[in-house]
Amino acid sequence: MSILLCGSLAYDTIMVFPDHFKNHILPDRIHQLSVAFLVPEMRREFGGTAGNIAYNLHLLGEIPSILATVGEDFLPYQTRLERLGFDLRGVRLIPGSYTAQAFITTDLDDNQITAFHPGAMSASHTHTIDTVPGITMGVISPDGREGM
Length: 148
Hints:
The protein is α/β, with parallel strands linked by helices. The chain has helices spanning 49-59, 75-83; strands at residues 3-6, 10-16, 41-47, 65-70, 91-93, 100-106, 112-117, 137-140.
């Protein structure tokens, strides 16, 4: 079976704030929110809906093709996907863009503050499936607004 995964590829930067947001975000000052958190623990993960689904299918023995738009910072992710054997003919570089990125800060209560930059994912509507021949099944997962 030849599976095509349409969706996002993204970097997830996950940081742990070793305290509780509630100790720093004061309800009577919420209208003047300006906070900075020291996050001594941080890691960068390979994510995005197409990336996550592709990886899980890989664990089940499938090697799907991926259709996604990425930015100029994609090389580390590309290297990983190529090492795993993925078909990247459907991955299109958008010059002058970053790959989609989520910046997630989690506190000790597992509360999260997330900032998301869609980057090249916003151009997903300009990309078509004809770059990947021989597909017998398609999976459409979340992607850029217009692409959906």
